[in-house]
Write a structure and sequence with these properties.
This is Maleylpyruvate isomerase family mycothiol-dependent enzyme. The protein is an alpha+beta fold. It folds into two domains: about 140 residues, dinb family like domain (Four Helix Bundle (Hemerythrin (Met), subunit A), Up-down Bundle); about 100 residues, SCP2 sterol-binding domain (Nonspecific Lipid-transfer Protein, Chain A), CATH 3.30.1050. It has a five-stranded mixed β-sheet. The two termini are about 35 Å apart.
């Protein structure tokens, strides 16, 4: 019998390479001084450097199988002398990742800042960082940008499950508390369905999918998986025609204001 987690991890590994290749193709020969609307204050060069740096840092963590929080994020970046070399450098970063994945047991215990304390956490996180920033690059360049719906659904799940653990680098997350208020996020094109409950001591994802659409939560948001992902990452507003929102929009606004990743 196949191991679903191992299968998912294999998909994530392949997708890191595919998403990076799309990213590189978009920025190759582009003006890297262009601003990136999805990352205010960043240029395309900043975006490429960040993504490649994340891939190299996560690869270093995987090689070391870290068992406790690292004291430093310093890693040998081997940046090119000129920003013209950044696209090729990003492609090399993905090659570094592929090398780190080779022979890696995704179920190996590892420290991780999120809910899943295994090596697979970092592979999945690397993929989603790369995927979201690939779309940032394409949108900055005015290119058509799409996200595979199954990858998008998985990325929404990863975001919602890990967000309660993110307060140490996203401090406003600590303000997502309440007295049982619920938010429901539902994919229109897949079976993705999450119910988030705000509690006095924090918040978390509970089982969903048992209630008819538009019920079972104080506010519900329904959209295609890719649009829902971009909403959660602050790239798309829920006032877009892509979304159906039912219920307490003030609660949704409070979520949006405090869930920036």
């Amino acid at each position: 019998m196949s191991n679903p987690r191992a299968t998912a991890s294999a998909v994530h590994r392949e997708a890191v390479a595919a998403e990076t290749a799309r990213f590189v193709a978009a920025v190759k020969g582009a003006d890297l001084t262009l601003p990136v609307p999805g990352c205010p204050g960043w240029t395309l060069a900043d975006l490429v450097k960040h993504t490649g740096s994340v891939q190299r840092w996560f690869s270093a963590l995987l090689r070391r199988r870290v068992q406790e929080p690292p004291r430093s994020r310093d890693v040998e970046l081997r940046l090119p002398a000129s920003e013209d070399g950044y696209p090729d450098w990003l492609a090399d970063s993905a090659a570094e990742a592929a090398s780190a994945f080779d022979g890696l047991d995704p179920d190996a215990p590892m420290w991780a800042w999120g809910a899943d304390q295994h090596a697979r956490f970092w592979i999945r996180r690397m993929l989603i960082e790369t995927l979201v920033h690939r779309t940032d690059a394409e949108r900055a360049l005015g290119l058509r940008s799409g996200i595979d719906r199954d990858l998008a659904t998985d990325a929404v799940d990863e975001f919602l499950v890990n967000l309660p653990h993110a307060a140490f680098f996203a401090p406003k997350v600590a303000d997502l508390r309440g007295d049982g208020e619920t938010l429901r996020f539902r994919c229109a094109d897949t079976d993705g369905d999450w119910l988030v409950r705000l509690r006095p001591d924090g918040f978390g994802v509970e089982a969903a999918g048992r209630e008819p659409e538009g019920t079972g939560a104080d506010v519900s948001v329904r959209a295609a998986a890719a649009d829902l992902l971009l909403f959660l990452y602050g790239r798309l507003g829920h006032d877009s025609d892509a979304f159906r929102v039912d219920g307490d929009e003030e609660l949704l606004a409070r979520w949006t204001a405090n869930s920036a990743f």
